[in-house]
Specification:
five-stranded parallel β-sheet; alpha/beta; Rossmann fold; single chain
């Protein structure tokens, strides 16, 4: 079995967790969601961490969580804000292939209905569109491969992840 990790990055609603778990099954790999580890370590929901401790604390704690990972042969679904930390992205890149699940802004908005409770890092005074425009080049920078997911079903995105992982 290939021991390389497959790391999924992308906007909120891009399907990192949903498609990641299915891709892991197809690839005979483990599945790991960094948001779940982060919540477990903090003993709070993501939105509560942001509300109670602020965005700077959230990003620093997320970075600590990512840097603590020592896994292989795993499909890793990351939090959408992971790209704010070069240290985190370098750590992830050392362990595998980074796949960016790309969405248009309109598709992202259509998919995320729980923006105020989801735990999305949007800087004070910024709009969701500002966050999108800020993150997009960061995702592109770190990606080994980009999958455009706007018109994909979950199954189509999973198939593309599996194909990319097997290359």
């Amino acid at each position: 079995m290939n021991r390389e990790n497959i790391i999924l990055i992308g906007m909120p609603g891009s399907g990192k967790s949903t498609c990641g778990v299915l891709a892991a099954k197809a690839l005979l790999k483990n599945f790991f969601d960094t948001d779940l580890l982060f919540q477990g370590l903090e003993e709070k929901k993501l939105q509560d961490i942001i509300d109670e401790n602020g965005i700077e604390y959230f990003l620093a704690a997320e970075e600590r969580t990512i840097l603590s990972l020592d896994i292989n042969a795993t499909v890793v679904a990351t939090g959408g804000s992971v790209v704010y930390s070069d240290k985190s992205m370098e750590h992830l890149k050392k362990s595998g292939k980074i796949i960016f699940l790309n969405l248009s802004y309109d598709t992202m908005v259509d998919r995320i209905k729980n923006i105020t409770t989801r735990g999305v890092v949007v800087k004070k005074g910024d709009s969701l569109k500002d966050m999108y425009n800020e993150r997009l080049p960061m995702y592109q920078k770190w990606a080994d491969l980009i999958i455009d997911c706007d018109n994909n079903t979950v199954e189509e995105t999973v198939a593309e992840i599996v194909k990319a992982a097997e290359k």
